[in-house]
Amino acid sequence: MSQEHFNVDPTEIAKFSSLAHKWWDPDSEFKPLHDINPVRIDFIQQYAGIENQRILDVGCGGGILAEGLAAKGGHVTGIDLAEKPLKIARLHLLESGQKVDYQLKAVETLAAEQPESFDIVSCMEMLEHVPEPSSVIQACAQLAKPGGWVFFSTLNRTPKCYLLAVLGAEYVLGLLPRGTHDYARFIKPSELARMTRSAGLDTVEVAGMHYNPFSRAVTLNQDSSVNYLVACRKPA
């Protein structure tokens, strides 16, 4: 599939593809994703419920969130534009026994094909990796059924976030590969709110997510200065 027509950065695809074999190693560079996953799932569960819901995970990568949602009884589709992580995701289903429909597809393409098809759309830790996050948000909104839920998580463009998520996580602690994040692409909650509003979504909750890399504890609070989660609803 040609990626040139899609809202995708080939450098980002290559970056995550090179690490694909480590996706399900909880002590690898993906350790933070494994650690925050239960909190992300609980956040979705709290607002939308998961069991028997038709769910789309946008930018699913190797399937950590998608599988977690399937394990809670969701009927999950995962889409990504990186082939290697998708192959890893499909292989892991053989190990876990979960059912997820993984597709190599752009969210904008799926939105044109299957508008208003999903009860829940999640797009976690992805917006800061694409050239046009507003296009992704618009497509997520299109894919949600009327009355459906759309969830985002991303990084705030603050000095504190740069210190913790870039310098700390990538260069000091080595939790993430150097170059994982481009600070210029981080998104302020006010900017995300503007984009979700333009897409016709109502913001219900913005929650800060605090990750302690030493204890590996994850908590939600009101401080959205670094990582934050957003719950949106599409008007019925």
Automatic annotation (TrEMBL):
S-adenosyl-L-methionine binds at residues 40, 59, 80, 124. InterPro entries: SAM-dependent_MTases_sf, UbiG_MeTrfase. One of its GO terms (molecular function) is polyprenyldihydroxybenzoate methyltransferase activity. Pathway: Cofactor biosynthesis; ubiquinone biosynthesis. It comes from the Bacteria. It catalyses: a 3-demethylubiquinol + S-adenosyl-L-methionine = a ubiquinol + S-adenosyl-L-homocysteine + H(+); a 3-(all-trans-polyprenyl)benzene-1,2-diol + S-adenosyl-L-methionine = a 2-methoxy-6-(all-trans-polyprenyl)phenol + S-adenosyl-L-homocysteine + H(+). CDD domains: AdoMet_MTases (cd02440). The keyword Transferase applies. Keywords: Methyltransferase, S-adenosyl-L-methionine, Transferase, Ubiquinone, Ubiquinone biosynthesis. GO terms for biological process: methylation. Its EC number is 2.1.1.222, 2.1.1.64. Belongs to the methyltransferase superfamily. UbiG/COQ3 family. PANTHER family: METHYLTRANSFERASE, UBIQUINONE BIOSYNTHESIS O-METHYLTRANSFERASE, MITOCHONDRIAL. NCBIfam families: UbiG. O-methyltransferase that catalyzes the 2 O-methylation steps in the ubiquinone biosynthetic pathway. HAMAP family: UbiG. This is Ubiquinone biosynthesis O-methyltransferase. The gene is ubiG.
